[in-house]
Amino acid sequence: MKKKSDLFENAWTVPNALTVLRIILIPVFAVLFYQEKFIWAFSVLFVSGTTDFLDGKIARRFNQISALGKLLDPVADKLTQITIAVMLFFEFQKASSGTMKAFSWVFLFFLVKEGIMIVGGAIMLAKGIRPGAAEIYGKIATLMFYVVMLLVVAFGPEVGAFVRANPDLALPESVTMVLVVLSAVMTFVALLSYVPETFRQFRENKKNEGAPAAK
Hints:
Layout: H1 4-7, H2 14-34, H3 38-61, H4 67-93, H5 98-103, H6 107-126, H7 136-155, H8 173-193, H9 195-210
Helix pairs in contact: 2-3, 2-4, 3-7, 4-6, 4-7, 6-8, 7-8
């Protein structure tokens, strides 16, 4: 495991600043959404998604990849996804449509997935194993999540920011459910994609623990 000093080496970068901004925007989004300032909440979520897209691009383009960034970026993603899923769950629970109210439970799948990732990551760190960077499936799943949730927050039936002023802009319930389910499926695929590498690291760690210490 890297030393604390190594973790903060080359940490003062634009990508890391964008990631910190994304973390700061999480409670801002939650408060605005809770206060039913939905257009502002949508705007904050749009900025958050944009920073998530830009930080990786900038880090790779200008060689600003850092150990701190590799740690903060998934933390920001997980906290953002958990917050969005919880807020939409409670908002759809208030829907007059029985279908949408029942469907609201699907949002908790994202919460369960992130819980598994957090617990798994904590176990790995406790054993001195640094969790790997996101696989391609993880990146696709995160992008799909942001796109789908932006659409739901903007145009979801009964909950959309722009639907409240003009109900005709609402996505059909069937379209909304298909989009969210597709995002959930991609999220599940991304979760499975971490399994082989995670087991490999645990086997390697166990082998190293069992190896005789060098004299």
